[in-house]
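Q: Structure tokens for this one, please.
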Amino acid sequence: MASPDATGFESETWRKVARELNKITSSVYEDFLRKQFEREIEGYIADGVFPTYAGLPEDYKKWRFENTKSILRAVYTADPTTLKSLKKNQKKIIVRLLDKLSVSNENDAIFEVLNSVLELDDVSTKLFAKQLKSVSLQSIVSAIEVLRRRHEVAEKLRTLMNDHYLETLETPDLQGIIEANTWLFGSSYETLGAEEDTFTKIAKSLRDAVKGIDDITLDDLDADEPTAIEGASKQPDLFLARKVLHHDSMGRKIYRCIVVEIKRPSLALNYKHLQQLDGYAQLIKKHAEFASSDAMHFELILIGRKISEADTEIRSRMQGQVAKGLPGLVSDDARMKRFVLSWYTLLDNFLLTNQAMIDAL
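A: Here is the predicted structure, written as tokens:
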């Protein structure tokens, strides 16, 4: 260090210091760009720049959004000025083209197109290509892991419904599984949030007021054995109620009030259970707090292992609503929809959606 040559710009010591300084400054700059990008994206979301993904399952919507957001992050990190000066409509065009291209058979063309537009040196070009490749791989791996976990839950429930439906179930275990996996009811029920005590208590008290709601007869059982009634009486019905902020088709804020009644697996749903659902709907309509607010929209969902083969009324009601395109819909009033669903329908619908998402990946 005492020698002049030891501290000159060409010395090994100086080169080491310069390399470390470059690493630090690059890290600080990249961190700054990431934070700036998140602020930019908030504006994109507020301005409706991203596609709405209308008609796609919720989990696939989320994956598409995060995938496109990751591509934009890579572009912004490579050259922040590229997106900065665009007008709103220009942003929409760019973002939506990137979104479409990323899930097409031409997704490799993303790098070719962007590389031809961005003015990057060789080092930056290689880094950009690496980032885009990493983005795609990370998004796919993340999506596949979500699908894998959900597939495991669905298979366990199918085994339960096939082989163990006559056995006594532990309420906390099954209740916990269902509350943690509300996507089982359909993609629009993926994120229902935590329960609200007041709403849940009122909804549960009205449910308990339905005449004969917990009564079981031999006609209700899937297994035609008198001894099965004793086992069924030990199985609990499960109840889930959520009130979440939502926007209707006109963009107005409303409360989406979702009430799910899951009948014990040893029962087969029949006309009596449909009447109970209708009775519950009437009690809700008469309740002052619920009936007086146009902002409260209800979805009442009755779920059972299967619909009784002897029943005709449930299927008839479903057929009358088939044009609405909502599985299990039996009634559609102004602010209240009623559904009757079997676990097998829910699980099969999940597998079909799951496969569609895997094909897209």
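A few notes: Residues 168-360 form one domain. The chain is about 55% helix and 10% strand.
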